[in-house]
């Protein structure tokens, strides 16, 4: 005679239907969702023509995007779910939202060219984020590689591509800069920087350790930056966008020096890995005065 299975034993073997999720896993995702809400609000502000609020919402989304990862690492709340949510949020906030803002502002006057420029920027942001996620799994990256991004990061690209909008409100640009065809070309150029192989400064290693005597001045400087941004948002954003673009040649040069110093890697003139011999490259630099 066969015995029926013990129902109590089956219940013990079943996983619990509702598991409690630690708060340290929830808080970083809440920050990401707040960033997403801010990015979507920027779209609404753009439709209503409230450009100051739209730009401010994108800026808030960028700040929150920089915080969610740090909060997750500090609270040891990193998760695969959080990484995927962060990528989707970044695509909406820094790929779709700036493209729609530029289209509603001036690119719509360029007809199909304006829409194509907006599409190219959004697609480039998506490709850049996908490449970034794949690069995280690369075990062969040298330790110094964390100092650089490959291409312009999505938040910086979003704030930089809106430079014509900042200058329009400041009245600091020649009339040809406000032309829709030029803005479309500028949008495509920033899209190229997103998917390019150009190394740009990461900034992730900044702020991990601060000298004790610099803590208070750092607080004062942070308050000053926030106060200036709130008081003069378009001036600060325009200046920041221009300064960021000017740092790209310096980041390329710093990256090139580190690659040349690494005996296990080789580099060609455009920053891609190749089979070029390091000694031959060094001799060639000497011949050209590099």
Structural features, described:
The chain is mainly alpha-helical. It has a single domain (22-135, 145-200, 212-287), classed as Four Helix Bundle (Hemerythrin (Met), subunit A). The chain contains eleven helices and two strands. It has helices at 7-13, 23-47, 51-74, 80-105, 112-135, 154-161, 163-170, 180-195, 215-231, 233-261, 278-287, and strands at residues 148-150, 199-201. α4 packs antiparallel against α5. The radius of gyration is 24 Å and the shape is globular. The model is unreliable at 265-290 (pLDDT under 50).
Feature tags:
mainly alpha; 67% helix; 11 helices
Secondary-structure topology with pairs:
Elements: H1 7-13, H2 23-47, H3 51-74, H4 80-105, H5 112-135, E1 148-150, H6 154-161, H7 163-170, H8 180-195, E2 199-201, H9 215-231, H10 233-261, H11 278-287
Antiparallel strand pairs: 1-2
Helix pairs in contact: 2-3, 2-4, 3-4, 3-6, 4-5, 4-6, 5-8, 6-8, 6-10, 7-10, 9-10
Keywords: Lipid biosynthesis, Lipid metabolism, Membrane, Phospholipid biosynthesis, Phospholipid metabolism, Transferase, Transmembrane, Transmembrane helix
Main location: membrane
Domain CDP-alcohol phosphatidyltransferase C-terminal: 214-249
What count of domains describes the coordinates? 1
The biggest sheet, with number of strands, parallel, antiparallel or mixed sense and barrel status, is: 2 strands, antiparallel
- Looking at the structure, the CATH topology is Four Helix Bundle (Hemerythrin (Met), subunit A)
Q: Can you tell me the CATH class?
A: Mainly Alpha
Order of strands across the main sheet: 1-2
| Average pLDDT metric | 81
Total of DSSP H or I helical runs spanning 4+ residues? 11
Q: What level of helicity do the residues show?
A: 55-70%
The gyration radius over C-alpha positions equals 24 Å
Cα distance spanning the termini: 90 Å
């Amino acid at each position: 005679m066969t015995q029926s299975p013990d129902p109590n034993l089956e219940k013990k073997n079943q996983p619990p239907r509702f598991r409690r999720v630690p708060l340290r896993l929830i808080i970083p995702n809440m920050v990401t969702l707040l960033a997403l809400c801010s990015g979507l609000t920027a779209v609404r502000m753009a439709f209503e023509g409230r450009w100051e609020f739209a730009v401010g919402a994108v800026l808030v989304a960028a700040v929150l995007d920089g915080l969610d990862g740090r909060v997750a690492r500090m609270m040891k709340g990193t998760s695969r779910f959080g990484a995927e949510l962060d990528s989707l949020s970044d695509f909406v906030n820094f790929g779709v939202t700036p493209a729609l803002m530029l289209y509603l502002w001036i690119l719509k006057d360029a007809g199909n060219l304006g829409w194509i420029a907006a599409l190219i920027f959004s697609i480039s942001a998506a490709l850049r984020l996908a490449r970034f996620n794949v690069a995280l799994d690369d075990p062969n990256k040298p330790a110094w590689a964390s100092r650089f991004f490959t291409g312009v990061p999505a938040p910086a690209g979003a704030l930089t591509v809106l430079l014509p909008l900042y200058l329009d409100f400041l009245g600091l640009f020649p009339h040809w800069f406000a032309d829709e065809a030029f803005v479309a070309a500028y949008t495509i150029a920033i899209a190229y920087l997103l998917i390019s192989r150009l190394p740009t400064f990461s900034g992730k290693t900044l702020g991990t350790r601060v000298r004790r005597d610099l803590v208070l001045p750092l607080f004062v400087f942070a308050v000053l930056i926030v106060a200036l941004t709130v008081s003069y948002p378009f001036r600060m954003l325009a200046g920041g966008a221009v300064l960021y673009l000017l740092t790209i040649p310096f980041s390329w040069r710093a990256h090139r020096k580190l690659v040349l110093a690494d005996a296990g890697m080789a580099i060609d003139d455009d920053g891609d890995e190749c089979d070029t011999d390091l000694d031959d490259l060094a001799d060639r630099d000497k011949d050209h005065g590099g």
